[in-house]
Amino acid sequence: MAAPSSRPGKLAIRPYGEGDRDAVVALWKSCGLTTYWNDPDQDIALFRNTASAEIFLGKRGERLTAALAVGHDGHRGWIYYLAVDPKLRGRGYGGEVMRHAERWLADQGVAKVHAMVRETNQGVKAFYGRLGYQPNSCDIMQRWLDGREAPGIDTERDDGRLDLTITYLEMTERPPHPHVVPPHRLKLSLLRAHRPTVGFYRFLYNSVGEPWLWYERRVMSDDDLARIIQDQRVEIYVLYVDGVPAGFAELDLRAPPDIELAYFGLMPDFIGRGLGRYLLTWAIDTSWDHEPERLWVNTNSLDHAKALPLYQRCGFSPYKQEQVVIDDPRILGVIPAS
């Protein structure tokens, strides 16, 4: 086991020990690192029972401030579960535990270290870049060996149906994210559509959802749809850019004390302009103004590839996953075939 860090720094860094589990898992959860497919207790046991792996904790006094897991195969090292207390970021703590892990790897005779970062996680990529890490030209490929399908993959079948993965996410307190500044030079407005007409709602829903095969509301009768969207406990907010509808968020308050973010998305012409996170954080803050016990949402593998990472970056944590099979709405004629 490695000794506590003897170099001067802001943190006292030491290996994981007995009694650290609850604090470590709480830190990982606060950083959105625990998911339904990553069991923290299993991973902690794996790292602790593997001679070529370690978990390091960085503390200020008695407060756990940062943590990471590190392992190697004798040639390449890998970083896992890097976490810094969200309230204490920007003070160099992440860099401290990273340098400690790098020294540990060097002492093990390891020549190179890798860190896997999702393409959409630009903030973490910038963090590693500041530490001298460079992009690798190799593609990483994976396959589950325990019968699971990789999250985010949908499979078209030969029988006109679709396999898809639904991910359910939740948050139980208002997240500490800073206010997201809207993109410059855009005239934005967010208005609630009180008792929207069915025609206007269908325009929003169909325009936003068609690329992702949203079909449930398309097959509803006008009367059934009106009963939902005109309920005073359903709040529909429309984002306008220069007076043009650009997207919407729908909050369903009909099952207190929970609130469901029932629908959220942008019109195709407005994707990629920095509006998604702005609208989502606004919808989250508006939901918490109602003081629910829980805010939840679901996304599936037919949605935009950045949907799940965006929800997680904005404070949602996955809690359940299920595999379902649906009739392809394009074959049924519900959605136009491309």
Helix content: 10-25%
How many β-strand runs? Answer: 13
Strand content: 25-35%
**What's the average pLDDT?**
88
Return the structural class: alpha+beta
Number of domains: 2
CATH C-level category of the largest domain: Alpha Beta
Inertia-based shape: elongated
One letter per element, helices H and strands E, the order comes to EHHEEEHEHEEEHHEEEHEHE
N- to C-terminal distance? 58 Å
Give the full name of the CATH homologous superfamily of the largest domain: Gcn5-related N-acetyltransferase (GNAT)
Radius of gyration, in angstroms, nearest whole number: 23 Å
The CATH topology of the largest domain = Aminopeptidase
What is the CATH architecture annotation of the largest domain?
A: 3-Layer(aba) Sandwich
Runs in which pLDDT lies below 50 for 5 or more consecutive residues are: 1-8, 149-154
Q: Helices, strands, pairings?
A:
Layout: E1 12-15, H1 21-30, H2 40-48, E2 53-60, E3 63-72, E4 76-84, H3 93-107, E5 112-115, H4 122-130, E6 155-156, E7 161-171, E8 188-192, H5 198-209, H6 222-229, E9 234-241, E10 244-252, E11 258-266, H7 275-288, E12 294-300, H8 307-313, E13 317-327
Parallel strand pairs: 4-5, 11-12
Antiparallel strand pairs: 1-2, 2-3, 3-4, 6-7, 7-12, 7-13, 8-9, 9-10, 10-11
